[in-house]
# Entry
Amino acid sequence: MSTISIIIPAYNQGQYLAAAVQAGLDQTYPDVEVIVVDDGSTDDTAVVAQSFSDPRVRYVYQENRGLSGARNTGIRHASGDYLTYLDSDDLFLPQKVAILLAEMEKRPSLGFVAGQSIPIDENGSSIGKQFDKGLPAHLPDLLLGNPLHVGSVLLRREWQERVGFFDETLRSYEDWDMWLRLAVAGCEMGWVDQPVSLYRFHRHQMTRDGRQMTTATFAVLENFFRRSDLPAPWQAMRDRAYSRAHLRAAAQAYRVPDALQEAQEHLATAVQHDPILLANHAEPLARILSGWTDLPKIADPLAYLETIYNNLPPNLPELAQRRQRDLGQIAMRQAYQAYEKGDMLRAKTAVRKAIRCQPHWLTNRGALSILLRTHLTPDT
# Structure
């Protein structure tokens, strides 16, 4: 059997680490090694990691070098033919390794395979939608954003040796950078349409991480397009790649009250790079904005979208004209969701907002039913 090296970088998340290590040990595929790299933690990470008596667990300590540095240390200590990465606050599903390895064995030409991921909150409860987009059919479309969760991949060791280690100058998106380097190097990539990991979101960390991720996004692209060996199909993606990067930056900035000017600038620049976003009365751009409201980090989709429409750059009148329609649709969707969950107060607020934005909802039987039922139910 081939050994699978599970590399867990750990920095001050001792409260989650035991569950992560156990998730590695609980794989239905038994030939695994779990390498915990303590990246200079000051909490109980060392105690937790060394509490496991299973000989498949190894603990390595280093002075703090960041996530990429910790993963690279894990790679250097790994003995497996395959590498997989598990952040210390995330989890593998029990069949993760077996599922991905089976795909590798079925298709020996694959150097990399990935599966779906389920977002969870601090307490382990499922939130939002699955990360289930998969790899794009046109591989240069990977430049439009990272569709994969790092905990959902399996990589042949030989391919890591070909393209090198994770970039330690990056504080975020070091995994996206690695997937791009693999793809350009000719690594054949596969996708399995099954959940294999759990991706934990910490809402209170997102403001800090958002700015860090924006910086890293542009660093990845600058490094990538600086390459002299970049094939023409990848070079042709430059404008669209930067457009999507500015859109992601705008999405992050719109969540921070003191970054709204920055958000407007990113949104305006995104359109300059890709004017097709404004086609058909800005329908492509409006769909993207609506999609942002589904992100697990967005606690109140309606309030978030309203913030965006209240702070649009002046060069987007096509989008501004959609304000009432788009807010009304999101409000009505929120009303339906709250009603289905039995949250009558939230449903009442949302349906009122939808009707104020678009009075035609009063002619919709479903909307009218929610309006009547929520107003007949005492607020609690």
In short: Strands lie at 4-10, 32-39, 57-62, 82-85, 91-92, 112-120, 153-156, 189-200. The chain has a mean pLDDT of 94.
